[in-house]
């Protein structure tokens, strides 16, 4: 079994002691090189070296504080193994790739190519990208395609290669213009012979139109099977809608027979191993501030507009959520923060239960106010009962920035190592964090101002209904109402998102 398959199993087994993961932060960090089309040899050796030197792949399951009890099904593991073999056979180092992407196909070349591809291209922020990549990979599993990614400079150093001794990078000298020119030539010939497109561009973003949404009709899939190259532009987690499509339903039920809320959990952990550089930042912060706490609480605070929702209102909401609604934190006092136990000498010993709060937000005032508040409580308790920490605050989201994406990925993984998560509504950043953690989050209510008093809506937060991310914008080809279900109709594992009016998400049971 390959290293990638062993990794996904390792997430579900008991961890070793944290002492085993202590190491020097100056671990080897070879540059991830994008292949040249038709390459091989020396570059393939570099790729293999990167595979074996990916520290996070070996250590991530050790340092996590919350472990999923859900194990991938044997059928999913077998499909992943098949995929790895196909990816190796069809990756950019292969002859099959060269033949499929050749500008002028040979006259005797078979119409049926060995390999078919789906190429992911980036749009919007890192959370959207990770969600759409995982959905694209699920589609590749279902349709026997090979997933390649067209990472720009802002993403190329974020992750290790996911597939053993292979690459998922589209070659840097590969351009879609080659295939588009080939498409134009075939257009001229289509009157003389049956016409099958070589390349099709798919737009599955929030602003897609009715034509784009035809992708989600089962009747469209046999036509897409004949297209060797699909180029995808998406910022959505469209995996839930695949469960509604009759052509995929049986296969998905075998992949995820018991726990439909772990689709992103398993695929995300399988695909996304932080690069050594990113992993060094993650472990350095975790060891310094989070590792020694008895409880770790992650607060992910996304503000779409401070003009519509003042920071003071959001701060009051967060405090109400963690202290009153969810009672995640019991404020320090003599009975709730200490326990008395008998030591080996027979004397009573008092221990203090400590809580670490990680604040992930672009805006620094949330950390500042929470830190000030809990410092005062710590002084009353006479000990550091609650510590508040942050990694950075950049005030604005910077698209296309490698540095910004690296900081965002550090925050996502640190949040995924917490025991409890409070996330903002409609935030794909939060979706990825709780999905990787395998946690059902507490979700803050949307706090758009509706009156002049600027009161916090009650309840301040609600427990989510699922560990899965939300598909925010989707087609309407299949009925999702369980009361309307007919034989062969929609499966009862889809329901409306609790934080997005028109969204859908996977659940194990309807609530």
TrEMBL record:
Assigned keywords, A-Z: Cell wall biogenesis/degradation, Glycoprotein, Glycosyltransferase, Golgi apparatus, Signal, Transferase
The UniProt record lists the keyword Mitochondrion: no
Gene3D superfamilies on file: 3.40.50.11340, 3.40.50.11350
Enzyme class of the recorded protein, top EC level: transferase
Principal place of residence: Golgi
Record's bilayer topology term: Single-pass type II membrane protein
Signal peptide: 1-15
EC number: 2.4.1.-
Record has Iron as a keyword: no
Compartments, as annotated in UniProt: Golgi apparatus, Golgi stack membrane
GO molecular function, a single term: galactoside 2-alpha-L-fucosyltransferase activity
GO cellular component terms listed in the entry, alphabetical order: Golgi cisterna membrane
GO biological process: cell wall biogenesis; cell wall organization; xyloglucan biosynthetic process
Family listed: Belongs to the glycosyltransferase 37 family.
PANTHER family membership: FUCOSYLTRANSFERASE, FUCOSYLTRANSFERASE 2-RELATED
Function: May be involved in cell wall biosynthesis.
Name under which the protein is recorded: Fucosyltransferase
Organism: Linum tenue
